[in-house]
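Per your request, structure below.
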């Protein structure tokens, strides 16, 4: 497989994964977006998983529903 073919395949896989991360119109977000919304550092997000932040593992990544993170933020105000 050529480099160009691999890049095309990687793009297709990434697009498919993005679609799989959606469920019932709920968008799943990664650690970077969680950090942006909460103001937490990535290490704090991983630590807060143990303390009730509504995140879950997807493979090796932590993800969360955007709506659940928003609810979590509101509950802390």
């Amino acid at each position: 497989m050529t480099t160009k073919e691999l890049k095309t395949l990687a793009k297709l896989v990434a697009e498919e994964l993005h679609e799989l991360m959606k469920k019932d119109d709920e968008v799943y977000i990664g650690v970077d977006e969680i950090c942006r919304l909460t103001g937490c550092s990535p290490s704090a997000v991983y630590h807060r998983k143990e303390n009730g932040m509504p995140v879950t593992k997807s493979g090796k990544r932590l993800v969360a529903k955007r709506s659940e993170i928003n609810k979590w933020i509101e509950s802390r105000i």
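The two ends are 53 Å apart (CA to CA).

Regards,
D.
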